[in-house]
Design brief:
The structure is a single chain. The protein has two domains: 126 residues, Alpha-Beta Complex (Aspartate Aminotransferase, domain 1), CATH 3.90.1150; 248 residues, 3-Layer(aba) Sandwich (Aspartate Aminotransferase, domain 2), CATH 3.40.640.10. Helices cover 36% and strands 17% of the residues. Strand 11 and strand 12 form a beta hairpin. With 394 residues, the protein is an alpha/beta fold. The protein is globular and about 60 Å long. Helix 3 packs across helix 9. It contains twelve helices and 15 strands. Strands 4-10-9-8-7-5-6 form a seven-stranded mixed β-sheet, with helices on both faces. A four-stranded mixed β-sheet has the order 1-2-3-13. It has a four-stranded antiparallel β-sheet with strand order 11-12-15-14. The chain binds pyridoxal-5'-phosphate (PLP). The site of pyridoxal-5'-phosphate (PLP) has 16 residues, from helix 4.
Amino acid sequence: MSFPFFMTWSKQKNASSFNITSNETYCFRTPEGKEILDMSSTSYQASFGLKNSEICQAISNQLKEMPVTSPKAIWPNKINTTKKLLIEMNLGEGKIFYTNSGSEAIENALKIARLVKKKNIVLSRRKSYHGATLGAVSITGDWRHDDPSTVDQWSAFIPEPDDDPNCEATEKIILDIGAEKIAAICLETITGNNGVIIPSKGWYNAIRALCIKHNIFLILDEVICGFYRTGKAFGYQHYNIKPDLVCLAKGMTGGHFPLGAVFVNKDISNYFEENVLPCGLTNYAHPIGLAALQAVLELTESGDFQRHQARLNEFFNTELDSFRSLPNVKDVRAKGLLAAIDLNVAPPAWEAWIDAGIYLIRQENRIILAPPLVMPTDLLKKGLDTIKGMLSYE
Ligand SMILES: Cc1ncc(COP(=O)(O)O)c(C=O)c1O
C-alpha cells in the first residue's frame, strides 16, 4: 500500500505497517477489534504503557495551564523536575540541556564535548545506534552508518568489549590517532537495538581509566537504558562509573511526548558560565514534555512501581531461561526488562507476529523484547507463551 508520508528505515514499496483505531494500555487495537500486545514498548519508549493514565493526566493538565512557552521562561516545574532528575541520576552537580529527541541529545553532547575539549574525534562501537541525524549517524556503527551523507571524518570505532576485555586494543587506537585529537568515547551503556550486549564491569573500568588517562570525555547514551529499562534507574548504575555526559530520551516521558536531554558534569557546566553555549531549540524544555517527565519521575519513585518492576524483572528473566532450550534459539541475553533472543534461523516475518497478536522488534536472526515496566505479570506470561510458540517451529 502507498501512503502520502514516508515509513521509517525501509524501502517504501514493501514497508511493514499495521492499521489501528486506538490503543489500550498494553495493546494496539486493530479496525477488526483485535488486540496486539506491545512486547517491545513500541520502539523502547512506551515503558509505562501505551496510554498511561498518570502521564496522560499530567499532559492534559499542562495543556490547559500552559501549552507553550519561551525557552527563556522559568516556572516552578522547570526547576523542580530538573532538580529531581539530577538527584535521580546521582552524578553530582551538573546541568541538563533539554532536546526533543534522542538524536538531538547525542548531537548536542557531541557538540559540547568537542567544544569543551577543543578536540574533534569521537570513538564509538560498531554494534551501536545513536540516532538518525548526521552527527549521531557518524558515530553509529550499524548499517545506518553507511548513510552517504555521513560526516564521519571525525569518528573512529573501537573493538567490542568481548574482543578487548582490558581495552589494550582500544588504547592502541587512541595512541595511533593521537589522544590530543580525541574529544570523547560515546557508548550505549548496554547496547539496545544492536543485540542487548552487556559489557563487563572490568571493561567499563578500563574504559573509564583510559578516558581519565588520555583526557577524553565519556558520553553514555542512555536513550534506551535510562528510566529503569535495565532494572536500575540508569544503566551506568550497574557499573558504578561516572560518565561526563549522559544522553536521555524515550522512557523519559514514556513516549507520550517528544523529549530528550543531555546531562553534563559540573566542569562542563562551569565552562559555559564564561563561554557561549552555542546550542538551542525552539521547543527547548517544552512545558508539556516537562509535565510528562515530572509524572514519570513521580511514578518511578513510588513503592508500587519499585516493587512491581523488581518482581517483573525476576519473572521475565526466569521465563526467558526456558527459551534457551528451544532448538531454534542460539543465545538469550537480558538485563532487566530488555532482552535479545538470537536464533539459528530467521524469525517469523513481522506481519506473522502481528497476525499472532504480538508487537516486537524483529531482526534478521533475532528478536528483541522490552515489555512495558508496568505490565501485569499474567499479560507478560501470555505474551511470552505466544512468542515461545511462534519460535518453536521445525
Ligand atoms: C541508543 C539510542 N540512542 C539514540 C537514539 C535516537 O533517539 P531518537 O529516535 O529519539 O532520535 C535511539 C533511538 O532508537 C537509540 O536507541
